């Protein structure tokens, strides 16, 4: 379009200049300089106006092309920003999955490392208000060290029994004095195989027919 407009201007200019030359040779030029200036101004004004219009049209077309180029650049920039946002979201999800997997693995290792204490009744003697109950605690989980059993009863106060080093399947026996219908919480503190401290507890109570208790100590920290 630009080339066609240019050649149109050239051809029109050549024709107009040819017409100007023909008029000069046919009619001649006035002797007065002012009159000659008016002749040339009259002939060259349409030519100047033609190129002014062609230049204006050319600038409009170039402006339109520049606007379209800017629009395309803005569209590409928008698409690039959207792609970057998607990549950031994918990276964030991958990082979150890795963090979750790491946390799950940490929990799994902690569960594998901790001991599991199982309580069992060995024997008991009953009295009028309570009795003495002998229990066996067995570690069915991982090795525990510095194992300490603690409990507190209303009648006999606070008691501590050191269970020491308890590898897997190791059992220890201890005796608890209980009053009927007064539950006592047994607490075992320990250090697991990773060096982390832990605490587990189980509740026992005295009945005339024997003790009532939960078989497995529940981890509380």
Classify the helix fraction into a percent range: 40-55%
CA-based shape: rod-shaped
State the separation between the terminal residues, measured CA to CA.
82 Å
By secondary-structure content and strand pairing, the structural class works out as: alpha+beta
Features:
2 helices, alpha+beta
Task: Explain what the structure shows.
With 221 residues, the protein is α+β, with helices and mostly antiparallel strands. The chain has 2 domains: 2-109; 114-219, Immunoglobulin-like (Sandwich), CATH 2.60.40. Helices cover 48% and strands 32% of the residues. It is built from 2 helices and 9 strands; from the N terminus they run H-H-E-E-E-E-E-E-E-E-E. It has helices spanning 2-27, 33-113, and strands spanning 117-126, 130-139, 144-153, 157-166, 171-179, 184-191, 197-205, 212-213, 218-219. The strands form 2 sheets. Strands 3, 4, 6, 7, 8 and 9 form a 6-stranded antiparallel sheet that branches. A 3-stranded antiparallel sheet has the order 1-2-5, with no helix packed on it. A hairpin with a 3-residue loop joins strand 1 and strand 2 (130-139). Helix 1 (2-27) runs antiparallel to helix 2 (33-113).
């Amino acid at each position: 379009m630009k080339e066609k407009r240019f050649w149109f201007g050239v051809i029109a200019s050549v024709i107009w200049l040819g017409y100007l030359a023909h008029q000069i040779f046919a009619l001649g030029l006035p002797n007065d300089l002012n009159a000659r200036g008016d002749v040339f101004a009259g002939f060259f004004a349409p030519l100047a106006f033609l190129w002014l219009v062609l230049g204006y049209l050319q600038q409009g077309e170039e402006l339109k092309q520049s606007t379209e180029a800017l629009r395309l650049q803005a569209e590409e920039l928008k698409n690039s920003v959207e792609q970057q946002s998607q990549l950031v979201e994918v990276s964030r999800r991958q990082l979150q999955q890795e963090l979750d997997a790491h946390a799950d693995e940490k929990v799994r290792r902690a569960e594998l490392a901790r001991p599991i204490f199982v309580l069992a009744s060995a024997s008991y003697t009953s009295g009028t208000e309570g009795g003495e109950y002998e229990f066996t605690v067995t570690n069915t989980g991982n090795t525990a060290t510095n194992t300490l059993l603690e409990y507190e009863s209303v009648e006999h106060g606070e008691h501590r029994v050191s269970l020491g080093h308890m590898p897997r399947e190791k059992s220890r026996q201890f005796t608890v004095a209980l009053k009927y219908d007064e539950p006592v919480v047994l607490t075992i503190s320990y250090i697991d195989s990773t060096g982390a401290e832990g605490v587990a507890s189980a509740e026992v109570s005295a009945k005339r027919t024997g003790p009532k208790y939960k078989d497995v100590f529940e981890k509380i920290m």
